[in-house]
Structure formats: structure tokens, C-alpha cells
Amino acid sequence: MAKPQKRYVCQQCGSVSSKWAGQCGDCGEWNTLVEDGGAVVTPFQAKHNLQSGGRAITLSGLDTDIPLPDRMATGIAELDRALGGGFVTGSATLIGGDPGIGKSTLLLQAAAKLAQAGRSVAYVSGEEASDQVRLRARRLGLGNAPVQLAAATSVRDILTTLGAGAPPALLVIDSIQTMHSDLIEGAPGTVSQVRASAQELIRFAKERGTSLVLVGHVTKDGTIAGPRVLEHMVDTVLAFEGERSHQYRILRAVKNRFGGTDEIGVFAMAGEGLKEVANPSSLFLTSRDESVSGTVVFPALEGTRPVLVEVQALTVRLASGATPRRAVVGWDSGRLAMILAVLEARCGLSFSTSEVYLNIAGGYRVQDPAADLAVAAALVSALSERPVPTDAVAFGEVALSGEIRPVAHGNLRLREAGKLGFGRALVPSALAQEKGAVQLSGFAGLPGFVDHMLARG
Ligand code: TYD
Ligand code: MG
Fold it and tell me: Does residue 121 form part of some domain?
């Protein structure tokens, strides 16, 4: 028999190599290769398996009578919204986020809510003792919810216990990185352990109709620790985001086999746990009584949900010939460079001797190209020291030619702005015909827009 070959798995990206090296050849991380005890299929074995095994399966057509998957709404509306209506029975959900962002808190609240509604719920913590979890539950005012708590890290123990009785409707594993499967060698948290533990838990969930929720830690570059593979194994991936220093948190579906990925849930961390935020716009707008130059409100869209955020720009003129700094928080720095270039080339404004800082208030992150016009407005306002009226919002995509293009869901954005008391909007000219409570000023190109802003005294 051939000597079993050693293999080394990168704990960062999951790539496999036959030799140990200090640096992973795939992702370039240092000191991430770890020897892995997993079985290795040689090319010969693979060929052999192909020749001898495999049966033809019957492919059948679409049956329109198949019922929709069974969903279990948690009663936490923001969580249900991100999930697309609740946890699907027999599905696996991965929830990732930075340490301390509130994953355990959210799941304990959801578990307690479901338990109070009469569902059987098991919460297994590999990070905290049962007493710690119980203390937290009491602090959240959920001390008497009939949730089954366990502190355990052995997947075999967990499944043996749960398999003996009726399976729970919801099983929370906090976190998958602390779990250990004895089917495979290696310390908890390594790629192969995480994968094997997840596999066993997911199989249990699918067989017994339990909704499984795995908590996953996130590495410093924002991916769920260890394995991308984990994201492929589960049905739904949720990312819990936010700055720890800010109170708001956004729950975003990154992948959803049973629903859309364009909805978010918004929460605020308070003394008694996570509170739902039904009207997110109020959270991201700073108090706006007085007009300050460089700030503009942008109606962003999260899925089908408008969220008003404040774009802030600051320019500082440099006396010396030093290279001016450009710093961005909450937006794409490449996109800022583009808007600056268009303002310089098409509108004759010069930022070359000024430092430029751009910030989205409240720690919010904007990816929507519709923010271009709001950013341009903030930059022009900051440079010219003329405030944009406090009751105005701006949105539109800016092309390299200086053209201002229409964007998706203009109506929705305008409606939300109107609802929150904004009286006018600076928009692409294609939108200016819209009727509504908000008075519209339409612009076809950035030069005309800049003239309009500079003309106002
Ligand atoms: P936690 O849910 O433990 O985070 P994670 O599981 O993602 O690591 O939440 C940790 C933070 O939340 C902690 O720093 C304290 C804070 N917190 C509150 O502000 N209020 C609360 O009611 C609770 C339970 C936690
Ligand atoms: Mg936790």
C-alpha cells in the first residue's frame, strides 16, 4: 500500500499543497499552512471510482405543486426581513461578524423569542459557560424563556444528546470555530475541523428538519474565518456589520438559497440588547438645524429600502507644494478620485492644492453609484464654503463625460426624503418630471450642476 501522503491546508484560504511552506502560494498569507489528516484521493483512485461506481439518476421536470419551504418567523422583524421571512426548516444559516458585534446577543434574543412562542430551541455555546449565557439572558430580560442551554464543543456529544429525543426546531451553535469533530484529526478552528463539524451538524439538520444556525468568526480582512468552504456548505449566509463604537448594526444577507440577498435588517445595540430600528434614516442623519458647508443628504437604497445618510466632505487648502491627502470613510476611494477628476476636467474646479476628506456619517458604508451627485455636491460645497440647503437631498450617477445619469428607484428615494421632511431634491434631469411632495431640480450635466451650486449666495 502506498504511504499516505501528507497534505497541508492553508487556514486562510483553504488551498491544499503537498509541501509545507512559510507562505501560502495562493493567498500569500504567512504561517497559515497546517498539516491536515484528511483523506487524499489520488488520480488513480479517482479514475477507478469513476469506472466502477455511479448509477444513472432520473432527472424529472419542474413540479409546480411543490409547496414553498416551511419558514419559522422569529418575531424579530428586522431579522426575519434579512432572512426573507424567517428560518427555513431543515436549512443551515451561517452568521458572521466581528467579535463583539452582537452575534450571540442577537441569536439569544431570537432563540428566546421562538422558545416563548412554543418552539423547542437549543443554544449550544462553545465560548461561554451556560451560566454566562443564562446571565446574559437575564440581562436581556429573557431569563425565563424555555431555551435549552448547553456549553459543549464536541459535535458527537451534541448530536448524541439531541438525537436521543425529538429534534429541536432551532439549533444555535456559537461558534463553529470552537466545535470539534472526532471523525478527523486537528485542533478546533482549523479548516478541516470546521468543515467536518459543519458537515455533521448540517447533515443532522437536513435529516431531522432542524433549522441550524452557525456563528462564524470573521478574520481581520472581513471574511468568515478559515473557510470559504463553509459559505458553500450552508444555505444562507448573513453578515452582521457595523462599527463597534457606533450603536447601530446592519444584518445583511450575503447568500440566500431561499430568498433575495437585497434586504437588510437594522438594529441598535442598547443596554438591554439589540433593538430593532424600523426607521433607519433617523439613525444616520446627524442633527441638522444649521446648514454647514460640505454636508449633503443622500437617499441610499438597501435592497428595496431607502435609508437617508449624510455625506460629509472637508477640503483643506495646503500652503506648501506637498502632495495633498485624500481620505475616505464609508465610500470607495477610487470613485472619489473619479468624481474629483470629473470636477477638475469638466467643471474647472481645482482640488490639486487641497486635501480632501470624505465621510459617510454614522459609520454607514455606501456602494450605490447614485451617491456620485451627493458626493460631488458635498465636495463643491466644501470647496466653495457654500452650504447646501438643509432641506435638500441629492442623488444621481456621474459619468466620466460629466453627464448626470438617472439611477434605479428614484421614486422610492424621493418618497422617503419627503416622508422625513425634505422639501427639495437635486436629481438627474430625466427624473425632474416626477410629481410628488418634493420639489425637484433636474440637471443633465455636472457643469450645469456646479454653476447652480456656485450661483446660490
Ligand atoms: P456579543 O453578542 O457577545 O458579541 P459577539 O457574539 O458577536 O462576539 O455582544 C458583545 C457586545 O455587546 C459587548 O461588548 C457588550 C454589548 N452588549 C450591550 O451593549 N448590551 C447588551 O444588552 C448586551 C447583551 C451586550
Ligand atoms: Mg459571541
Answer: yes
DSSP string, 169-214: SEEEEE-GGG-B-TTS-S-TTSHHHHHHHHHHHHHHHHHHTPEEEE
Binding site: which residues? 97-104
Q: Which ligand is nearest to the CA of 96?
A: 1
Looking at the predicted structure, is the pLDDT value of residue 290 above 90? no
76-108 pLDDT per residue, tens? 999 999 999 999 999 999 999 888 899 999 999
Pocket of ligand 1 (CB under 6 A): 97, 99-105, 136, 139-140, 269, 271-273
Q: Which of 24-33, 189-198, 348-357 has the lowest mean pLDDT?
A: 24-33
Whether 56 is in a domain gets the answer no
Residue 133 within any structural domain of the chain: yes
Q: Residue 323: give the domain boundaries.
A: 283-455
User: 96 and 116, same structural domain?
Assistant: yes
The answer as to whether 61 is a domain residue is no
Distance 102 CA to ligand 2 centre (A): 7
- Binding-site residues for ATP, please? 97-104
**Confidence check on the interface: ipTM exceeds 0.85, yes or no:** yes
The answer to whether 106 and 251 are in contact (CB under 8 A) is yes
Render pLDDT for 129-150 as a digit per residue (tens, 0 to 9). 989 999 999 999 988 889 999 9
Among 105, 125, 218, say which to mutate for ligand 1: greatest number of ligand atoms within 8 Å of CB. Answer: 105
Q: Are residues 269 and 363 in the same domain?
A: no
What is the number of domains present in the chain?
3
